[in-house]
Amino acid sequence: MHGKIKLEIQNMFWNRCIRKRCCLCDRVNLFYDLLAEIPGFDMGDKPQGAFYLFPNIKRAAQLSHYGTVDDFISALLAETGVAIVPGRAFGMPDHARISYCKDLDSLREAARRIREFVGK
């Protein structure tokens, strides 16, 4: 009986992991595609195991008339409420770290706000 309970617990754990991975796959696929449509967002490769995207956004900053990616990111937060982390913190000043650990509707809304910000 003990072995059967242990096996059931392991199965529950792995089933939960698979469901979580599916959720993250749905999120990365959606958010990656939405951000790739934004002018100046060079998405690079789609992540295979992370929970964030790391696009080069230097061109988006330039298109939006900001001198640096950091200025762009600060203005994005102030004007839209969308928070992204400057790539400078990771030694890549032209990039931004953008998490996709939110629900799909929130990701759609964030992408919409970013797109409008870049297009203004």
Q: Could you describe the 3D structure shown?
A:
- With 120 residues, the protein is mainly alpha-helical.
- Helices cover 57% and strands 7% of the residues.
- It has helices at 2-36, 58-63, 69-80, 104-119; strands at 52-53, 85-86, 96-99.
- It has a 3-stranded antiparallel beta sheet, covered by helices on one side.
- The model is unreliable at 17-22 (pLDDT under 50).
Give descriptors for this structure.
120 residues, mainly alpha, Aspartate Aminotransferase, domain 1, 3-stranded antiparallel beta sheet, 4 helices, 57% helix, globular
Overall shape: globular
Instruction: Summarize the biggest pleated sheet.
Output: 3 strands, antiparallel
Q: Structural class of the secondary elements?
A: mainly alpha
Taking the alpha carbons of the first and last residues, their distance comes to: 65 Å
Query: What is the H level of CATH, i.e. the homologous superfamily?
Result: Aspartate Aminotransferase, domain 1
The CATH topology: Aspartate Aminotransferase, domain 1
Number of domains: 1
Number of helical elements: 4
Mean pLDDT over all positions? 86
CATH class: Alpha Beta
Low-pLDDT stretches = 17-22
Strand tally: 3
| Sequence of secondary-structure elements | HEHHEEH
Order of adjacent strands in the largest pleated sheet: 1-3-2
- Which percent bin holds the helix content? 55-70%
Instruction: Please state the CA-atom Rg, rounded to the nearest Å.
Output: 18 Å
Q: Give the second-level CATH assignment, the architecture.
A: Alpha-Beta Complex
